[in-house]
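Recap from last week: sequence in, structure out.
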Amino acid sequence: MKKTFLILGLAALFSFWAQEVQAEEEQTVGDQGKIVYDLEQGGTQTFAVVTPAGENMFIEVEERPNLLRSVKNGNYKISAATPGQWKAEYQITISGNKITKAYSPSVVAYTGSFASAKLSVDNTKQATYYLKRKVSLITTSINLRAKLLTNSISISY
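Predicted structure tokens:
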């Protein structure tokens, strides 16, 4: 009973945060969804989405403080969560309109487990946190990807 209230409370809290931020949501492409973080707006932008599997997911991109930065250069924390199931996050550094570093990966499974987790800078414009989540006998792949665009960061899941 306490778990139910905790899960409902967390879902309500995440929903409240998601309503506070005015951010654009990019249309889904195929069976993989995407959101777009506006680099010019900056700050913390939170998105509430429904995955292709029908799960509620909350994605947050947070600009990290950096004294020596231009408009697009800086550190950003990428996080995603499905309430009561899992949470994953990592940070990226953007310098000279390139993703130069992906670091501080973290993943928590509230139900099931993670069979593998690998953070990678795929190229100068893209970093991906590759996750394999196992619940009972079913293993699913989650690719939390940050792609640097002209004035934004596109997050796909």
